[in-house]
């Protein structure tokens, strides 16, 4: 399996190379040169498999023998053993044909654990085998950071640098990162927003000359292909548990960087019958404006009750554009770099194709709280604000009530106390393994919103 860049000016790579990097050298994102396709009967034969064994079948073609099968199986089994629910990704029913897929049973209580428990172990295996050291660098809007630290902190060959926007993540989110001890763990609060953090990370990847010569940067954001790959699995899992592939399923996905929903798009492209894919955003709604009005333009970043989706420009959308533009790398480059100075538009036929597949909705904070309250009143089930946005979009955008509609529940409500309290509900208890979180010692550095401030800091710690 070869991986190529969406900007068309970087050499093709194998799996290990894309695992150990971030952006392609031309600024693009890596995608598989071609996707594996599974037949309906093959998918049907996976019904009833435990999560890790299903993951093995879905992921294997992407790794293409670079990691021996028995090692991959062991790594997958260990990755998903850290989850507290035996089903790993349990489904919960909200209404006659409406479901949520609970993706927050991992160690840090958000869906990011699905990818980062695996990524940490894959990195550890490859780095130990090759006797190599790397620096992991990531920006987080709140949940990636703790999941990456939790997934990689035991790896002796990794130093971890995680940037979060200063005072823009919830207290539980911050403490989940800053209370992790370890000489290889470095939390940096940047005086800026998430897009600033993401910009600094991209710039550091673009020029790695500040690193010691034997080091390279590895991404833990969803620009890393391995993260997307891991997330494809739960679309198959949910479908198989709802009668797929013999009947289609629809998904509503709370969206920030477009990673999670892009994994759903890939699952569909690999043969899984998916009816609708719904892009559910908060007021940072650039993708909703594109799907509904063919307007792709920057706004100002809004801070909302769903901070993990407070993202202006969704990195992974470029991967989808690459397909939508029939893999014309030049057109992709023009579209995504053009956004910096002028609003962009899709060609009419492209817009039509995008709208055939994706529905979208932007949801404000008031509605988010109302939906949290409503779902609780109807089912005694407490959902987090990101999930609430997904549930609302699912209800508004549903085109066919006979198709099961699954909203991805991306985080546990305990991470987002503000929204739960604004919804007039009682704040849920922290789970057992985090009971003393608010008393633990914190460790982090606050730096200016400046690339050199961050790279100098990293240099001093490596
Ligand atoms: C990261 C995150 C999202 C957004 O996922 P993307 O892959 O960036 O679209 C949504 N909800 C929660 C809770 C998250 O942590």
TrEMBL record:
<dbReference type="Pfam" id="PF14821">
    <property type="entry name" value="Thr_synth_N"/>
</dbReference>
<feature type="domain" description="Tryptophan synthase beta chain-like PALP">
    <location>
        <begin position="92"/>
        <end position="330"/>
    </location>
</feature>
<dbReference type="InterPro" id="IPR051166">
    <property type="entry name" value="Threonine_Synthase"/>
</dbReference>
<comment type="similarity">
    <text>Belongs to the threonine synthase family.</text>
</comment>
<dbReference type="Pfam" id="PF00291">
    <property type="entry name" value="PALP"/>
</dbReference>
<keyword id="KW-0663">Pyridoxal phosphate</keyword>
<dbReference type="InterPro" id="IPR004450">
    <property type="entry name" value="Thr_synthase-like"/>
</dbReference>
<dbReference type="InterPro" id="IPR001926">
    <property type="entry name" value="TrpB-like_PALP"/>
</dbReference>
<keyword id="KW-0791">Threonine biosynthesis</keyword>
<dbReference type="InterPro" id="IPR036052">
    <property type="entry name" value="TrpB-like_PALP_sf"/>
</dbReference>
<dbReference type="InterPro" id="IPR029144">
    <property type="entry name" value="Thr_synth_N"/>
</dbReference>
<keyword id="KW-0456">Lyase</keyword>
<dbReference type="GO" id="GO:0004795">
    <property type="term" value="F:threonine synthase activity"/>
</dbReference>
<feature type="domain" description="Threonine synthase N-terminal">
    <location>
        <begin position="2"/>
        <end position="80"/>
    </location>
</feature>
<comment type="pathway">
    <text>Amino-acid biosynthesis; L-threonine biosynthesis; L-threonine from L-aspartate: step 5/5.</text>
</comment>
<dbReference type="InterPro" id="IPR000634">
    <property type="entry name" value="Ser/Thr_deHydtase_PyrdxlP-BS"/>
</dbReference>
<protein>
    <recommendedName>
        <fullName>Threonine synthase</fullName>
        <ecNumber>4.2.3.1</ecNumber>
    </recommendedName>
</protein>
<feature type="modified residue" description="N6-(pyridoxal phosphate)lysine">
    <location>
        <position position="112"/>
    </location>
</feature>
<dbReference type="InterPro" id="IPR037158">
    <property type="entry name" value="Thr_synth_N_sf"/>
</dbReference>
<dbReference type="GO" id="GO:0030170">
    <property type="term" value="F:pyridoxal phosphate binding"/>
</dbReference>
<dbReference type="Pfam" id="PF24857">
    <property type="entry name" value="THR4_C"/>
</dbReference>
<dbReference type="GO" id="GO:0009088">
    <property type="term" value="P:threonine biosynthetic process"/>
</dbReference>
<keyword id="KW-0028">Amino-acid biosynthesis</keyword>
């Amino acid at each position: 399996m070869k991986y190529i860049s969406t900007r068309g000016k970087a050499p093709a790579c194998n799996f290990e190379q894309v695992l150990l990097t971030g952006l392609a050298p031309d600024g693009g994102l890596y995608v598989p040169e071609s996707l594996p396709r599974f037949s309906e009967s093959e998918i049907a034969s996976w019904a009833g498999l435990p999560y890790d064994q299903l993951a093995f079948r879905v992921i294997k073609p992407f790794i293409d023998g670079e990691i021996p099968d028995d090692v991959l199986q062991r790594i997958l089994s260990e990755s998903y053993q850290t989850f507290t629910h035996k089903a790993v990704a349990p489904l919960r029913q909200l209404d006659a044909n409406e479901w949520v897929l609970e993706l927050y049973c991992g160690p840090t209580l958000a869906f990011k654990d699905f990818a980062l428990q695996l990524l940490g172990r894959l990195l550890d295996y490859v780095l130990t085998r090759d006797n190599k050291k790397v620096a992991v660098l990531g920006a987080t809007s709140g949940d990636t950071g703790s999941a990456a630290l939790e997934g990689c902190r035991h790896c002796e060959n990794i130093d971890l640098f995680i940037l979060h926007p200063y005072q823009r993540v919830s207290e539980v989110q911050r403490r989940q990162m800053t209370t992790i001890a370890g000489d290889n763990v470095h939390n940096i609060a940047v005086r800026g927003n998430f897009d600033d953090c993401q910009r600094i990370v991209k710039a550091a990847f673009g020029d790695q000359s500040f690193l010691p010569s034997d080091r390279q940067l590895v991404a833990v954001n969803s620009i890393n292909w391995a993260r997307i790959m891991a997330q494809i699995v739960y679309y198959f899992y949910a479908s198989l548990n709802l009668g797929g592939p013999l009947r289609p399923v629809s998904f509503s996905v709370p969206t920030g960087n477009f990673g999670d929903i892009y994994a759903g798009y890939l699952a569909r492209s690999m043969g899984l019958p998916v009816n609708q894919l719904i892009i559910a955003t908060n007021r940072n709604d650039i993708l909703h404006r594109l799907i509904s009005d063919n307007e792709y333009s920057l706004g100002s970043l809004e801070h909302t009750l769903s901070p993990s989706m407070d993202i202006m420009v969704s990195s992974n959308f470029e991967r989808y554009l690459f397909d939508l533009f029939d893999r014309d790398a030049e057109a992709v480059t023009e579209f995504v770099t053009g956004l910096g100075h002028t609003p962009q538009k899709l060609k009419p036929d492209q817009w039509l194709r995008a709208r055939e597949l994706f529905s979208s909705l932007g949801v404000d904070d008031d509605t988010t709280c109302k939906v949290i309250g409503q779902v609780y009143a109807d089912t005694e089930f407490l959902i987090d604000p990101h999930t609430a946005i997904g549930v609302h979009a699912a209800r508004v955008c549903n085109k066919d009530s006979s198709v099961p509609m699954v909203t991805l529940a991306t985080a546990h409500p305990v991470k987002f106390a503000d929204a739960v309290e604004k919804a007039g509900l009682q704040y849920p208890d922290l789970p057992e393994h985090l009971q003393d979180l608010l008393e633990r010692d914190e460790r982090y550095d606050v730096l200016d919103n400046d690339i050199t401030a961050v790279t100098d800091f990293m240099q001093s710690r490596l």
